[in-house]
Amino acid sequence: MAKLEARGITKYFEHESHRLQALGGVNLKVESGDFVCLVGPSGCGKSTFLRIVAGLEKPDGGQILFDGRPVTETGPTRIMVFQEGALFPWLTVRDNVEFGLKVSGIPREKRAEISERYLDMMQLTKFAGSYTHQLSTGMKQRVAIARALVMDPDVLLMDEPFAALDAQTRDLLLVETQLIWARTKKTIMFVTHNVAEAAVLGTKVAVFSNRPSVVKREIPNDFPRPRVPDDKELIDFQHEILQELRPEVRKGGGAGAAAAPAAAEEAPGEGASGANKDDTDAEGTVAVEEEKRREGGTR
User: What pLDDT does residue 253 have?
Assistant: First the structure.
């Protein structure tokens, strides 16, 4: 039995008095220990789908099964890491990491013991007494990941957690995320617009179609780890993803057409304000990756 399964998930949104279908019947199985990356055109509903898996949104049709049981609400078995981190600025790093444990009634001594492990894992020990405004964006994301891991969820849901990072910090966290996954054996679902990220991280890449979205193709990825974004062995795999993604982006009329209605169609986390940051626009990513591939072939 799959750890997590989506069966025929549909979702509609109201936009300018029209009912638009974002998700057109998403089917996906995630096995225990999988690292599944979700890619697709901007505004196709990837983040909305992730929120449905988390129990933060209700689908209009279909169901999410966790260990064979329907998901009807949020729960500690599925913890989400958001793009913006969503940390508490009035709390220290340690207090942010321990927040969920405190709410769950874990005694102070036990909280300290658990949090220390993940502060160390995320290289945050020296910053445990700092406040979030004193941290870089990359450090804040480390705190958000540590806060999720201390709850020991069965499934970690990550919604474009590296989208706002500079390239150097992102590449470092891509390697560290692989090491954390290997150490914790967590099942991870990871939304990204960046094809290189998906190729580096995923044991499987699920390519979403244009709206109304379905999973167009699931591409297994068994390349050896650790992987890095400029690994030449991954170029062909990235191109395979792009071949599936390119026509879906074009169905939406390109980047501008895909981004325009995003705010109305996406739940917070994948909207017009966030969908086009950095490499997050799918059409732009296709163009950049294609150019890299051509340059690599002429050297």
Answer: 67
Taking the model in full, what pTM does it have? 0.83
Assigned token pair, 287: 């163009």
Q: Assign 3-class secondary structure to the chain.
A: CCCEEEEEEEEEEEECCEEEEEEEEEEEEECCCCEEEEECCCCCCHHHHHHHHHCCCCCCEEEEEECCEECCCCECCEEEECCCCCCCCCCEHHHHHHHHHHHCCCCHHHHHHHHHHHHHHCCCHHHCCCEHHHCCHHHHHHHHHHHHHCCCCCEEEEECCCCCCCHHHHHHHHHHHHHHHHHHCCEEEEECCCHHHHHHHCCEEEEECCCCECEEEEEECCCCCCCCCCCHHHHHHHHHHHHHHHHHHHHCCHHHHHHCCHHHHCCCCCCCCCCCCCCCCHHHHHHHHHHHHHHHHHC
Tell me how far apart the alpha carbons of residues 81 and 140 are, in angstroms, rounded to a whole number.
11
Residue 266's contacts (CB-CB under 8 Å, 6 or more residues apart) are 22, 43, 45, 47, 48, 275
What pLDDT is attached to residue 294?
A: 52
Residue whose pair of structure tokens reads 């983040």 in the numeric block: 47
> What pLDDT was estimated at residue 259?
36
Residues 6+ apart with CB under 8 A from 245: 39, 40, 41, 195, 207, 282, 286
Residues of the chain with pLDDT under 70: 85, 253-299
Instruction: Using alpha carbons, select from 3, 50, 64 the residue that is nearest to residue 22.
Output: 50
- Centre a 10 Å sphere on the Cβ of residue 224 and count the other Cβ atoms it contains: 7
Separation in Å, CA 129 to CA 65, 145, 224: 39, 17, 37
Hunting for tokens 């705190």 — which residue is that? 143
Instruction: Compute the distance between CA of residue 217 and CA of residue 6 in angstroms, rounded to an integer.
Output: 14
Classify domain 4-71+192-298 at the CATH topology level.
Rossmann fold (3.40.50)
Cα–Cα dist 2/147, whole Å: 26
